[in-house]
Amino acid sequence: MLLSELPSSEYNPFYHTYIMALGNVGLVEELTSGRDVFLSLLEEIPEKKLDYAYAEGKWSLAEALLHILDTERIFQYRALRIARNDKTELPGFDQDEYVPHSNAAERSAQDLIEEYAAVRNSTIALFKSLDETALKRVGVVSGSKMSVRAIGFIISGHQSHHVGILRKRYLN
Fold it and tell me: How far is 11 from 140, CA to CA, in rounded Å?
């Protein structure tokens, strides 16, 4: 499944920037290569840098990393529900409410690496298991139509977006 096969009618326009930043990639291939790139980035982060925030009121590096993990878990759950033909409308979530309860300050770099690898490997396994019918299945998320395949590309695009922020604002 290539990104060029994804019509914009299958996701909320809010996610267009994330999706279009990827180029014409394959879904599982992008999830896999994104995992490898992100793991390399995580392995370069010194432990002492995890509590760094680039400005007052901004998330620490550890909080930003956990935001990426939380978001992937939520989108993975959405993909599973829709893929299994669950017709329940799925709610949005407030990312800013998650961060204070993430216990980011107590996490080690190694712990974050291991957790990220587990979450992304689970995402890859889920999307590898889905057939064309499941990938094209559409549900309602936060009041908008969203396909399973769009969710996969959003997961990749969201991470890619944050990699840019991490490199520019936290690791520069």
Answer: 9
Residue pair 39/113 in contact by the 8 Å Cβ criterion: yes
Secondary structure letter of residue 48 according to DSSP: G
Which residue pairs from 81-88 have beta carbons closer than 8 angstroms and sit at least 24 positions apart in sequence? 81/139, 82/137, 82/138, 82/139, 82/141, 82/146, 82/147, 82/148, 82/151, 83/126, 83/130, 83/134, 83/135, 83/137, 83/148, 84/134, 85/137, 86/139, 87/139, 88/139
Q: CA-CA distance, 86 to 90, in Å (whole number)?
A: 10
Model confidence pLDDT, tens digit, residues 87-146: 999 999 999 999 999 999 999 999 999 999 999 999 999 999 999 999 999 999 999 999
129-74-106 Cα angle (round to 5): 120
User: What pLDDT digit, counting tens, does each position of 25-41 carry?
Assistant: 999 999 999 999 999 99
